[in-house]
Design a protein that fits this description.
Blueprint lengths: L1 H7 L1 H13 L8 H30 L2
Helix pairs in contact: 1-2
Length: 62
């Protein structure tokens, strides 16, 4: 069910996953997609900081 939900309604999948985590229902988590989403989140957070760092290096000659 989780895989089909992930593919058909991402927002609902997120809400369900949050509830499962809050209720400590770890056995029922869609681990594969949860990891995928966390990796993507990490990339989206790190990337802007890395871009700023590169721009500062070029601008300030650091």
């Amino acid at each position: 069910m989780s895989n089909r939900l992930y593919d058909s309604d991402l927002q609902l999948w997120i809400e369900q996953t949050i509830k499962q985590l809050q209720n400590r229902e770890f056995a029922s988590l869609d681990i594969e997609h949860l990891i995928e989403e966390l990796v993507d989140l990490g990339k989206s957070i790190i990337c802007p900081f890395r871009i700023e760092e590169i721009l500062n290096e070029d601008f300030y000659g650091l």
